[in-house]
């Protein structure tokens, strides 16, 4: 007597059940959405995924998570007076791609007599991953992030770690709900594009940055330029209102240099008791 075996395509629900069963049976897969940690006395780093399983051709978010010990800090894209920004070198399954770090708004961190631009506490650095359309169902998408960062208190220590995730490729993506919530909260707090264009001009030995669309009620304004050769990071930033526009007086860097006809950066301020952050660009007066 012949037994007929029927094969049926797995539904999304069955895929979820199969992956959960695999996670329970296989050590190390129960927390598939977060990599094993790289730990030092100063920083604990992991790679967090918004997916438990990915679909061919989709784009999704991961994040490098740094839990930084009290009193220590890591660095923004422009680290300020000293330091180095966090960098990630990716090794991915064939055809997959990774975007750039989506930088949160930095803090100005005094380390007398310097001021650094960076992060304290816990910071998530999101990155978009694109799955190749030709990825095969049942295979795995490997994400390997070789990350380097400088962590500083009164001294600075270079650190590094390789963080790896292996995510199943399924007919439909399976969201890692808790991880996605953390990443989306971090992305919602990223600096938003400013709805105006600034203007930078010389003002004696200093620079004047005019920001015509900044809310009049903005307080505690701080300018974080992407270029590390524009301003003296430790100098006071004087704010005034001129012809209805906010103008920030900035001290020039001792290594002052502008490579293009515009500058870009991030503005942080408070409005109505809430912290705000904007990305901005400004034309440079010849």
Describe the structure.
The protein has 2 helices and 21 strands. It has 286 residues and is mainly beta. The chain folds into 2 domains: 12-190, Sandwich (Immunoglobulin-like), CATH 2.60.40.1250; 193-284, Immunoglobulin-like (Sandwich), CATH 2.60.40. Strands 14, 15, 16, 17, 18, 19, 20 and 21 form an 8-stranded mixed sheet that branches. A hairpin with a 2-residue loop joins β15 (198-203) and β16 (206-211).
Helices, strands, pairings?
Layout: H1 12-25, E1 38-39, E2 43-49, E3 51-53, E4 59-68, E5 74-80, E6 87-92, E7 97-98, E8 107-111, E9 114-119, E10 122-130, E11 140-152, E12 156-168, E13 174-175, H2 177-188, E14 192-193, E15 198-203, E16 206-211, E17 219-225, E18 238-242, E19 245-251, E20 262-271, E21 274-284
Parallel strand pairs: 14-21, 15-21
Antiparallel strand pairs: 1-2, 2-4, 3-13, 4-10, 5-9, 6-11, 7-10, 8-9, 11-12, 15-16, 16-19, 17-20, 18-19, 20-21
Instruction: Write the CATH architecture name of the largest domain.
Output: Sandwich
Summarize the biggest pleated sheet.
8 strands, mixed
Using DSSP, what is the number of strands? 21
Order of helices and strands: HEEEEEEEEEEEEEHEEEEEEEE
- Helix/strand/pairing category: mainly beta
Number of helices: 2
């Amino acid at each position: 007597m012949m037994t007929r075996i029927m094969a049926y395509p797995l539904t999304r629900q069955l895929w979820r059940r199969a992956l959960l069963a695999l996670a329970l049976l296989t050590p190390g897969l129960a927390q598939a959405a977060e990599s094993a940690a790289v730990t030092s006395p100063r920083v604990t780093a992991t790679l967090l995924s918004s997916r438990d399983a990915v679909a061919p051709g989709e784009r999704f978010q991961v994040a490098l998570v740094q839990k930084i010990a009290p009193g220590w800090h890591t660095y923004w894209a422009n680290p300020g007076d000293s330091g180095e920004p966090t960098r990630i070198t990716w090794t991915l399954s064939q055809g997959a791609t990774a975007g750039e770090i989506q930088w949160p708004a930095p803090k100005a961190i005094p380390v007398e007599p310097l001021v650094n631009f960076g992060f304290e506490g816990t910071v998530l650095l999101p990155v978009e991953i694109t799955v190749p359309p030709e990825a095969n169902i049942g295979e795995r998408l490997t994400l390997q992030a070789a990350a380097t960062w400088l962590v500083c208190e009164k001294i600075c220590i270079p650190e590094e770690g390789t963080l790896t995730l292996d995510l199943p490729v399924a007919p439909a993506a399976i969201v890692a709900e808790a991880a996605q919530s953390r990443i989306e909260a971090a992305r919602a707090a990223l600096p938003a594009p400013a709805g105006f264009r600034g203007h930078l001009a010389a003002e004696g030995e200093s620079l004047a940055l005019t920001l015509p669309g900044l809310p009049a009620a903005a307080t505690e304004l701080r300018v974080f330029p992407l270029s590390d050769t524009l301003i003296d990071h430790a100098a006071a930033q004087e704010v005034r209102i001129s012809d209805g526009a906010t103008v920030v007086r900035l001290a020039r860097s001792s290594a002052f240099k502008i490579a293009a006809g515009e500058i870009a950066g991030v503005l942080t301020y408070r409005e109505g008791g809430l912290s705000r952050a904007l990305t901005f660009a400004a034309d440079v007066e010849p």
